[in-house]
Structures are given as C-alpha cells and as structure tokens.
What does this fold into?
Amino acid sequence: MLLGCIGDDFTGSSDLANTLTKAGMRTVQYVGVPDAPADTGVEAGVVALKSRSIPVAEAVAHALAALEWLRAQGCQQILFKYCSTFDSTPEGNIGPVAEALADALDARQVIFCPAFPGAGRTVYQGHLFVKDRLLSESGLQHHPLTPMTDPDIRRWLGAQVRGTVGHLDAQIVRQGPEAIKAALAAQEHRLIVADAVSDADLVALGHVAAESPLITGGSGIAMGLPDNFRARGQLAGKAGAWHGQSGPVVVLSGSCSEATRGQVARHATAHPAREISAADVMAGRVAAEDLADWAAAQEGIAMIYSSADPARVAQDQAQFGAVAVAGAIEALFAALARALVARGVTRLVTAGGETSGAVVEALGLKELEIGPEIAPGVPVIRAGHDLVLALKSGNFGGPDFFVEAAQRMETST
Ligand SMILES: Nc1ncnc2c1ncn2[C@@H]1O[C@H](COP(=O)(O)OP(=O)(O)O)[C@@H](O)[C@H]1O
Ligand SMILES: O=C(O)[C@@H](O)C(=O)COP(=O)(O)O
It folds into this structure.
C-alpha cells in the first residue's frame, strides 16, 4: 500500500476512494481500523472512521490507531480526509487530529484544503464557498450536529488547534508548483489553509505534496497524488473488474441537508415514501421490523426518511436534545438496514454521513470495493456478494439522485 487515508466519516471516505479510483489507484475502503493485513495489490487504503462528531481525545485515538495500521501496510504518505464543508465545531477534532498525525509523522508543514470544485466547494482568501454562497450562508449553518457559522477556515481551524495557522493565497496557487513550493518554504506556520478554486489548483497542490508525509483536505486534495506515485513507476495501472447488482432497492435518508431534502421531496412524488418523525422515534412508536416489512411490500424504489427542515430539527432538538435525537434516529436506521438485508434487499442507498456510518457499522461490513460513479463524489460500492451500497453525502447529487443510484447500481461498467 502506497497511500494511506483516514476519513472522518463514511460518505466522505467513499468520496475520496472514488477520486483515487478514478485517478488510477487500486483503492479499497475499510470500515474502521482492520484487524488483518491488506490484500497485496491495494495501492490506496481508506480507513473510514465515524469520528466527525465525537470528542477530540477519542477521535485522536482512532486516527492514531488507523495511522499505525496504515504504516504497517507500508504507506509512504498519509491523507486525512474531512468534509468539503469542513464540518466540525470550534471544539471539533479536525485540527487536533491533524496535529496528532503531524506529530506522529514528524511533518514540518500541513496543508488544509477542503475545496472540491466539482461539487461547488472552493476556498478563496481562506474562506469556504459552496457554489456562490459563503459556507455560513449555504444552508450548512443549520447542520444538526456541526453548524458551520463562520466561513473563514483559518479562524475555524485556529479555534481547534495549539499551533498558529497560515494561508496560501490563490494568486500563488494559480502560478503552479514552483511558486507554491517557494511560498510554503517562506511560511513559519505549521498549519496552512490553502486556497483552491479549480481542479488545476488542487492538482498543483497535490504535485507539491509528493514528499509530504501528511496532507489534509476534502477529496479534491487527492486529485494530484496518484500522479506522484505513477511518476515513480509505483502504480500497476490495472482496474479491478466490476459487475452490477440487481434486486430489491431501498433508500434510507437521515440527512437534513438542503440537497437531500430536495431529493427526498422529489422522490416522494413518484415512489413509495415513509417519513419517520423524531418525536415518534424518541417515543419508541416506530419499529425497524415494521418499517422493513412495509418497504419489502412496496413496488418501485421505497424510501424511508427522517430528513426534516431546519425549523423542525431545531424544535425537536430543543425538546429532546440534539445528541439524543441524532443517536436514536441513527440507531433506528442501523436496525432497519439489518432488517432490510435480512429480507433480501440487495441495493441500499443511504443519505447522510452519520446515517451511512450507522448503517455500514450495523451491517458488520469490513471492506468496500469501489465501483462506477453515480454523481460527483458518490460511487457505487460493493459490500458483499449480493449487496451494493451508495453512501450519499448530504449535499451531493442532483434532484433525481435516488433513481440514478438505483439504475447505476445495476450496470456493469
Ligand atoms: N428529523 C431529525 N431531527 C433531528 N436530527 C435528525 C433528524 N433526522 C436526522 N437527524 C440526525 O441528523 C444527523 C444528520 O447527519 P448526517 O447523516 O451526517 O447527514 P449530512 O450528511 O446531511 O450531514 C444524523 O445524526 C441524524 O440522525
Ligand atoms: O467532502 C465532502 O463533502 C463529502 O465527502 C463528505 O465528507 C460528506 O459528509 P456528509 O455531508 O456528512 O455526508
């Protein structure tokens, strides 16, 4: 294994694995830290953690355990992947995890670049934009667990870390690798937020990072890394064979993000849909087995969702507590996924990073093979002989994503 990656959630890890696969690296996504060695021939390993919303000490411990395993597999470089919208809180763990990895790897400087222009996320003057909106006006300010109320990534990261935060300006990044190298050499800060407004910027940053032990960012920061290994003649250049999967399909959506809510509303107009409310879940009025029976009896692409608008979410959080509601809904989706697979469901589409993490962990999956792309950042994933998944990040995918996912899962190319 050449490139070792640590992802702070499951949708994000499949987004990264998708980028690396498309760029020609043989990539496997692991569910948590594996307890056995990787197969030979794996060029990039993505250890997916469910650590985005957990306390700093726990997140650091999980990341260091992942690092130890990845180093034992021979990795020459480590990539820490977080959300392209930098989902975290001022007390969040992105900064502390990166600092702990940097200490363990003796990294002199660490780049932070969440940009993913293909999904509309750019970093300019240290500020994160989602399409034409600042992060804090993009809908992400209402996230149920990690409300992003400040678009200045330097300031947000600065609140989380011990060290000081520097900035690599878009004007420099645009000039390419030599200019970037010179600017980085002149920086006294260890943690550097890098602007990137295009794929070319990300590729240039990736090329500069050829010798860096650690790099951090969204999936976009991985775009230039495979070239570095290819230039050294280290990639086999062989893509794995992929075959599609037919059979019963169900959509589970616990994401309350704007894009998902649009997809849910659109899907419900033409397909069987069942809403579960936070109040019903908290009162124990919904049972996973009943929901699974309902889904199994439907024609078409059945969907079960708790996705709700910010006002509804705020009201339920005020009544029950944000962490308690999130945990109860995740536990319901976890039990539901198990019940659906037990009833023969072979295609599962999950919306939301935390939701997807709960489902994947509940299914006891260990390794995920990356297949064709459904939408930017979302691949089909094979989880077993008769089971494929699509783990959709909250804000990814077009209006008809759920139908597109079901179709893409069936194709073999
Ligand atoms: N109706 C709801 N009220 C409050 N919290 C909810 C509701 N529905 C889902 N949640 C919780 O909100 C969180 C959404 O996060 P996630 O699944 O990561 O979605 P996204 O990828 O859009 O951020 C989950 O923990 C989920 O359990
Ligand atoms: O970088 C991204 O935006 C995604 O890969 C990601 O991490 C998504 O997280 P969720 O929005 O919580 O699904």
Observations:
- The two ends are 25 Å apart (CA to CA).
- Residues 322-342 form the longest helix (21 residues).
- DSSP finds 15 helices and 18 strands in the chain.
